[in-house]
Write a structure and sequence with these properties.
Shape: elongated
Distance between the termini: 41 Å
Number of domains: 3
CATH class of the largest domain: Alpha Beta
CATH topology of the largest domain: Protein Transport Mog1p, Chain A
Structural class: alpha+beta
Radius of gyration: 28 Å
Strand order of the largest sheet: 1-2-3-4-8-7-6-5
Largest sheet: 8 strands, antiparallel
Order of helices and strands: HHEEHHEEHEEEEHEHHEEHEEEH
Helix content: 25-40%
């Protein structure tokens, strides 16, 4: 980091010395001394500091804080169980756990800091499980009995009721205060999910980090055989429902920065499907394969590769896949 600490023009140089009548230092000595003090002042101003151990207040309304701690990576497994592997898969930066009590009730707040909003959303979608999720990337919410899950900017956090049999979700005040605290520490804003909203099943949205462990959090048997290939790529996924005809489509979108990489991935995916499912379908201009009552269609351009998994009777899938490239 470059630093320049300039002396204010309104203050005369060496004025304390001049006032005492002592001999004014030579020009050579001033030239040697001033940069040294400037460098020292810059170091003092910009020395990096550790993340503070306590960022939560001692109380939130009637809730009193009983503990707060940063959990080291070595302690993730003991503190978070199976979720620890999920946090590693999405390259979590920092994990914090805070406990509050109020009139015999106990609530725990787990905060996970991640490198990006997309990764935080990926952890949120996987950790919230079957809970109904609402929102967009960087601003999403899911609630279940005894737990609230939130994606807020590059953070995932959950508020848990530690009662033996929680009957209601945790106090909303704990959720709102946590968001206020995190808002002051990072850019916490949301962005639309990069797949069409029309027909998309609410809560089905997923983001997978380029790590095989992240991909293994999903239960889609239709792509399980492709996990070794997909496990090194990031992707967005969602489900679409056509209630009128009883069809459900699973969509995976792989983003690319270079068109050459997108072309190579497309060719490899087509080759994999040909080896597993035989010849292409003749009724689609896009690469399309049908096997065991499931159809898989590939659509690609210079920056995106789509894989659509649907029923074999989905006659409109090919034209719909082509429409994705125009959005």
């Amino acid at each position: 980091m470059s630093c320049f600490c300039a002396q204010s023009e309104s203050q005369p140089a060496w004025s304390p010395v001049a006032m005492t009548g002592r001999r004014k230092p030579s020009a050579r000595r001033r030239a040697r001394t001033l940069p040294q003090w400037s460098s020292l002042l810059c170091l003092l101003l910009f020395v990096p500091t550790d993340v503070p151990a306590g960022i939560f207040p001692d109380s939130i309304y009637n809730w009193k804080k009983s503990s707060e701690a940063l959990i080291s990576p070595e302690g993730w497994d003991n503190a978070y169980g199976d979720l620890a592997e999920l946090f590693r898969a999405y390259a979590s930066v920092r994990l914090r756990t805070v406990t509050y009590t109020e009139d015999g009730r106990v609530a725990r707040i787990d905060v996970v800091e991640l490198p990006s909003r997309e990764r935080a959303f990926g952890v949120f979608a996987a950790a919230s499980g079957t809970a109904d999720a609402h929102g967009i990337i960087g601003d999403a919410f899911a609630q279940e009995r005894g737990a609230v899950h939130v994606n807020f900017g590059p953070f995932y956090f959950r508020v848990l009721s530690l009662e033996r049999r929680p009957t209601i979700p945790p106090d909303r005040a704990l959720v709102e205060r946590t968001k206020r605290i995190l808002f002051s520490r990072a850019d916490c804003f949301g962005s639309d999910f990069p797949l069409p909203s029309e027909g998309r099943r609410l809560g089905s949205e997923r983001y997978f980090a380029p790590d095989i462990r992240a991909w293994r959090t999903m239960q889609d048997l239709e792509i399980e055989e492709f996990l070794p290939m997909f496990g090194t790529r990031a992707a967005y996924a969602a489900e679409y429902e056509l209630h009128a005809v009883g069809i459900r489509r699973g969509v995976y979108m792989f983003p690319f920065r270079q068109k050459e990489a997108a072309a190579v991935f497309t060719a490899e995916l087509v080759q994999q499907l040909e080896q597993r499912m035989g010849s292409r379908d003749g009724d689609c201009v896009l690469p399309s394969f049908t096997h065991q009552r499931k159809r898989r269609v590939i659509a690609a351009d210079a920056s995106r590769v789509f894989l659509i998994v649907t029923d074999d009777g989905d006659d409109g899938c090919c034209s719909w896949a082509r429409s994705l490239l125009r959005r």
